[in-house]
Amino acid sequence: MTQIAGVFPVLPTPFTPEGPPDVAAFLRLADFALEAGVDGVVFPGMASEVETLSAEERAQMVAALGKHLGGRTTFVVGASHADPAQSAARAREGQAAGAVAAMIMAPPGCGQDVAQHVAFYRAVAEAAPGVVIMLQNAPAPNGAGLPPEKVAAIAAEVPAIRYVKEETLPCGQHVTRILAAATTLDGVMGGAGARFILDELARGACGTMPALELADAHVALWKAWQRGDRAEARRIYTLTLPLLAFQMTFRVRATKEVLKRRGLLTHTGARAAGPKLDEGDVAEIGELIATAKPAMTMHVP
């Protein structure tokens, strides 16, 4: 199978002023990712406001993205659902659209019970034969926030799980512990918005799955790391971290505001719950974009 490694941004879902997903704007954002030189893209995920998308909207966007990419980069489909049958159906939709793997988070109701997680993932694998699963381990309330050894135990029982996206804190330590405990995995990807990316890479993570707004900077950081230029990687990290810290609070609304200021998005409407930017936040994000600007290689605001 295709190796999953490098920079895999999670694409956001643009909406029209009238409310539906804006497919044309969405595909333009995919083009930005391709132009930035990413190693792959992920859709839909939490940064895509996936919890607000209907099954029909989700299927439409996945099909449109797969057709648009046409194999030009690696595609990982988000297929999380509380019902394993529905999760398998979303994985098969992605597979039909060209996705090489399905990123799936078990429902929070599984809690810390390894047996429940194993049963969930086995049911998905059996209903979607041949699908490569990336186990997404996110903190509560969205995920169960499993300790690394339990992640490894689940992966050992479900051969379809080949990758983990690790987002529980402290991310770096968890990458180390998962890799030490899990001998069946092909890799562990960093998450948490790339706010801990250097620590994750230093501990053996095979890449990162941040939001989209700084894809070009993250590609430059990854390339610097790969060629052994730790100083350049840290320079880029230092420039981008204040903006990523701001994004931790405002999530997709911050992502969309940055994309708008970079000329990549017109309408910043969002369905997701969470705080909205006020006048002071709008001023602050401008300062943070200016700080990150030297790390950007294209569409510089």
UniProtKB/TrEMBL annotation:
List ligand-binding residues for pyruvate: M209
Gene Ontology CC terms: cytosol
Query: What is a single molecular function from GO for this protein?
Result: 4-hydroxy-tetrahydrodipicolinate synthase activity
Q: SUPFAM superfamilies annotated for this entry?
A: Aldolase (SSF51569)
Q: Which UniProt keywords apply?
A: Lyase
Membrane-spanning intervals of the chain? none
**Would the keyword Transferase be found if you checked this record's keyword annotation?**
no
PANTHER family per record = 4-HYDROXY-2-OXOGLUTARATE ALDOLASE, MITOCHONDRIAL, DIHYDRODIPICOLINATE SYNTHASE
The family line of this record is: Belongs to the DapA family.
What is this protein's record name? Dihydrodipicolinate synthase family protein
Q: Which organism is it from?
A: Falsiroseomonas bella
